[in-house]
Amino acid sequence: MTTATAPAVDSEKTRRRATRPGRAAGTGVSRPSFVWAAPAAVFFGLFAIVPLLLVVVLSFTSWNGLGSPEFAGLDNWSKLLDDPVMLKSLWLSLLLTVLGVVVQTPISILLGVWAAGHQRNRAVLSAIYFVPLLLSITAVSVLWRAVLDPNFGVPSQARWLFGDGNLFGVQAGAIGVLVFVSTWQFTPLHTLIYQGAARAIPQVLYQAAQIDGAGRFRQFFHITLPQLRNSIVTSMVLMVVGGLTTFDTVLILTQGGPGTDTTNSAYYMYQKAFKSFEFGTASAIALLLVLVASFVSLVMVRLTGYDKMRSTMEGV
Predict the structure, then answer these.
(1) Structural domains of the chain in order of their starting residue, each with its CATH number
(2) Which pLDDT belongs to residue 157?
(3) SS3 71
(4) What's the rounded Cα separation, in Å, for the pair 16 and 20?
(5) Which pTM does this prediction carry?
(6) How many CA atoms lie within 13 A of 189 on its CB side?
(7) How many Cα neighbours within 13 Å face the side chain of 292?
(8) What residue stretch is flagged as signal peptide (predicted)?
(9) Are 183 and 104 in contact, with CB atoms under 8 Å apart?
(10) What is the mean pLDDT of residues 14-26?
(11) Does residue 31 carry a pLDDT above 90?
(12) How far apart are CA 249 and CA 255, in angstroms?
């Protein structure tokens, strides 16, 4: 009798051991504890959550960087609502973000799908194309500032194309330069996202489409794009957050000029903090940017259904 019931007892022990907290049900494999995530959680808390809370507090104070902050209530926020430069900078930030998404998304998708091929020449060209991604924003901005200099750069040698050559002297030209430089540097990042996503698409889908007589264009619009939906949303969220917080490029290329025509919210925050020494107002601008970026990102995620994380590989 003892030997007959031993397998049942062992099976019951195994089931209990597998269903203990910290183990994956039915596998007996231990799950990583929270201790493994503690260093990242502490780092995020110290360098993200704590500074954000300090910014929230400072946004309700008046402080010039010296002495102790004085509580100012909603004065900083009321000033921002009545500040025409602030409203203009917020609109400009949204404009730069929209232009960045509209320009970079189709280029990134096409290059990413093309780079997903396995030919040797594509690998070499892709490696060269990703070089701008390795450079810092400051280095890229300094480079293009020299290249587009109205006195010594390319525009001065091609006035038939650039007119008087001063692209930074008019709002349209300055905005065009900002969009172009951002596209030149950050398109490789989004191309890399689409390249990885395109390579993950099952080839059986394309094989079935070929049997049905679908050409490359129909395969691209009816298979590739639908399969890249989640990657497109991810890429666009990154573009939105990056576009709303663009600072380095504006500081080096245009310095908010001509006048305040390219003064976006991030650069205006810098001016308020480190030129006017109005740290309370600058904190309010920073908090406003966080709220706007979070709101836009959440709306995008909700409208696209990305929050439900549905699989795009139907029937596979």
Answers:
(1) 66-308 (1.10.3720.10)
(2) 87
(3) strand
(4) 6
(5) 0.84
(6) 16
(7) 19
(8) none
(9) yes
(10) 51
(11) no
(12) 9
Contacts of 19 (CB under 8 A, 6+ apart): 25
Length of the chain: 316
Q: Which helix (H) or strand (E) holds 262?
A: none
Supply 308's token pair. 């439900």
Least confident residue range of 23-37, 39-53, 169-183: 23-37
Question: Phi/psi at 62 (nearest 5 deg)?
Answer: -115, 120
Distance CA 65, CA 278 (A): 8
For residue 48, the 8-state DSSP code is I
Q: How many angstroms separate the CA atoms of 169 and 233, rounded?
A: 35
Listed residue (133, 137, 310, 315) closest to 233, CA to CA: 310
Confidence of residue 14 (pLDDT cuts 50, 70, 90): low
Cα–Cα dist 286/97, whole Å: 17
Within 10 angstroms of residue 202's Cβ, the number of other Cβ atoms is 13
Kindly report which listed range (66-80, 91-105, 290-304) carries the lowest average pLDDT score.
Answer: 290-304
Structure tokens at 152: 């010594």
Q: What is the DSSP secondary structure assignment for residue 301, as one 8-state letter?
A: H
CA nearest neighbour of 177 among 119, 255, 238: 255
